[in-house]
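Risk register update: the risk of archive-format incompatibility is retired. Evidence:
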Amino acid sequence: MYREIASEKRMPKVSIRGKRMFARYRLQFFAMALLALCLAGCKVDSINPISPLESAQPDPTLYGAWRYKAKGELTYVHIGPEFSLATSGAAPAANKRTKIILIDYKPNGITDESYVAYASRIGTQRYLSVAQVEDGKTVGYIFVRYALVDNNTLRFSTIDEDLLKGAIGSGQIKGTTRGDGVTSETAITAESGEIETYLRRDGAKLFTKSLVLTRVQDR
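Archived output:
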C-alpha cells in the first residue's frame, strides 16, 4: 500500500474494500466491452483533482440522461448539477459539483452508483475529476476526458495506467508506482496546478480508453 509520497506527503490509506469500490465503478461505467481493460486501472488516478475544487467549471452541455448498451447489459448515466438547498431569502450559491448517477440493468437485476465530479477546461479539452470516497472521505480522483461528438453523442476517455506509469517514471509528472502486474498501484501526487500544466502539454497521450454514450431523447 502507499506508505509515503516523496519525503513530504502521504497517500491516503486505501483498504481492500475501497479498491473493490473503485473497480466496481470502472466496470459498470465502461460496461462489458471494456471490462478487461478496466480491471488493470481500478485505483485512483491522482490524490488531487485536475483543478482546484473552488475553480470547477460546471458544463451544462453534459446534463441529461445518456445510455450505453453492450452484451446484454444496459447502463443509463444521469448527469446534472448536484442538488442544494438555498437558505431562505438568499440567492443560491453557484453549484460547482456535478452529480453522476449510473443505473446498470443486468440479467440478474439492477444496480446503481452515485458519484460527484468536478469539471475542468484546459485549452479546448474538457475533463472531469470524479471523486472516489471511502468511509465518507475523499481518497482520490479518477480523471475522465470527455467530448461532445454532437448534441446527442458523448465520448468519455480514461487514463491508460501503463502510459501513466511511464510518464511518472520519466519525471513528466510527479507520482508514485508500487508493485507489479495486477497488484501495482500508480497515482499522480502533483498539485492541481502542476496537473493542469502537464495535461495541457501531454494530456492527449494518456487518455486512450474510450466509449461512446447516446443521449436519451425526450418523449
